[in-house]
Amino acid sequence: MKFVPPDFGLLLRHLDYICEENIEQSNEDHQDKFNSLHGYGDDTSLLNARWAWTTPSGSYEFALWGKNSWAMSGYLSPAD
User: Fold this and answer.
1) Along the chain (80 residues), what's the average pLDDT of each consecutive run of 10 residues?
2) Highest taxon of the source (predicted)?
3) What is the 3-state secondary structure (H, E, C) of the chain?
């Protein structure tokens, strides 16, 4: 008798890391008072994640995803 492992489908995971420099003082709309704002000019770092499971037949896919999963503490809260 030959053992055949059960087919549980396919599990996929995907991560995106995005880093963007957010200061462009040469822009004609830039004003020096902007520099005093909390968080102004800070670079943006985003980590997006996705986990997906495909049924063994391939007919269905179930997925969970998160955008900006790596949000820095205080980044999304109002300035003091």
Assistant:
1) 80 88 67 72 82 93 85 48
2) Bacteria
3) CCCCCCCCCEEEEEEEEEEECCCCCCCCCCCHHHHHCCCCCCCEEEEEEEEEEECCCCCCEEEEEECCCCCCCCCCCCCC
